[in-house]
Write a structure and sequence with these properties.
heterodimer; A: 317 residues; mainly alpha; MetI-like fold; 2 domains; 15 helices; B: 296 residues
Amino acid sequence: MIPIKQKEISTKESKGKDIRKILSQQKYLIAMSLPFVIWVIIFAYVPLWGWTMAFQDYKPGIPFSEQEWVGFKHFLKLFNDPMFFLALRNTLAMSLLGLVFGFTLPIILALLLNEIKNLTFKKTVQTISYLPHFVSWVVVASIVTQMLSINGPVNNILMSLNLIDKPKQFLIQPNLFWWIVTAADVWKELGWNSIIFLAAISSINPELYEAATVDGAGRFAKMRYITLPGIMPTVIVILIMNIGNLINIGFEKQLLLGNPLVKEYADVLDIYILNYGIGSGRYSLGTAAGMFKSLVSLILLTIANTISKKTTDIKVI
Amino acid sequence: MKRSFGDIAFDVVNYTIMIVIAIVTLYPFLHVLAISFNDSIDTIRGGITIIPRTFTLENYKKILSDPIIGWATFVSAMRTLIGTAAGILSTAMVAYVLSREDFFARRFVSGLFVVTMYVSGGMIPSYMLIRNLNLLNTFWVYIIPGLISAFNVIILRSYIEGLPYELQESAKIDGANDFIIFARIVMPLCIPVIATLSLFIAVGHWNSWFDTYLYCSYNKKLTTLQYELQKILVNAQLQLTSTQDIHSYGKGMKKTISPESIRMAMTVVATVPILLVYPFVQKYFVQGLVIGAVKS
């Protein structure tokens, strides 16, 4: 470590003339990173430049200088489109449901798993619960469709419990769609999302628990006064990231589980962009919608981050 | 220590919840498996749980003898192999360079990658880019645009930074250049994280269908297993709407609907490779993820 630091100082002192020396000394490092710097500029930054399309009446195939600039026309169009607001509503509805269940349940699971003293049992439950995370959304959607089919297990169970008198087609009921998506998401990610909280729990100093036991604290008291405060920083970081991603819930599950009958509840912003932007070739409108999404997500992240920094001194960015 | 009644009651409830979670997680998989081994006509009668009623291998024979599915499996396997190898190598090189405090452009390059975690151009600019680069309907669209994830770079970089730097220094004194140090000294020490990240990348490749849908739907030679399953699923979804007397959709639909059993066999085929690698890397990934999580 130390020689490197010294080298840094000496290069600062005699800047200019040493640039060539640095370049030759670090030529392998440069060779190992330059291709990927070019890659990241092309595949991550050129699309940002593509945001200019939102302010043009973009037509593919003609050079940038000849595109017609139209200012905020496409944003105005967007904000006057009822379909856009429908997509926004669906996105927010499903992401809030996802936040309520997809965020709290893994914390509860981690707390409960932590109370299991039989290690083999604990490990088995963990291994099983991580499994669906690795399966694709296509497969999960296929499984969900099967489970909810007219003669599938869910209908069979509800029938045998006399909760319904004839089998239902759950997937074509618009008012159930948000809940089905949320349930599928929880089923897929519950175990996986609990890992980070389990890791946080395991890094709590065990002496705290011993001291609490000596003081006569019961199980719930320990959970309430040691475990929960111990994992709070992790909880807040994950919460901030989830809030930043409220509008980026993805679209795979909605696209795969949706059908024409539940369209009004299934179309999220990305599906809107896909259908209008790429499907019907309205690139500028689609780009404007995408840009709106990115900006909202940055604003949400900043707000959550600032609030958290002020109140708890924890920040993500 | 004497256990109170409340304590025991809590344990009973807790263990019950865990068992329920395990059953709810596993049951759908077993159900799908049972249906895939069940006679496809018999399946329509319903009522199958986790044991096939009329055992048959026909569904699998049908799928595996279909040349399109065979080819799609090949493409999926190729993109997984090539994509994972290229992805992990690129990630490792970037992570190593960024772990070097003496690298002159460290802050700049690091910043370039970190920003991509928070802002992205979005679907349409990316689509236009890929179109302009003539990557549409080529195999490389599976490999190049998603080559590196900044998140993986950060995890690996944190891990490398945790290794003793003296090892690199003594290699340098012995005359090794930076690339040799990277390949011979640093990488072998990173095997646990490399294994974990490779698993993530490989799973991502095997599971992805949307890039085929968006970028390669006109080139039948580039279809993937997940995309074929997605097409079958879309038909099944449309079938749902048509059985409910929705004439507008019911009549227009002439495509053959795969019977449930075939669809489930296809689902199993698309899942099995994941289940095969899962136990091997499972012991690594929690470890690797925890290290990454704690560091970043």
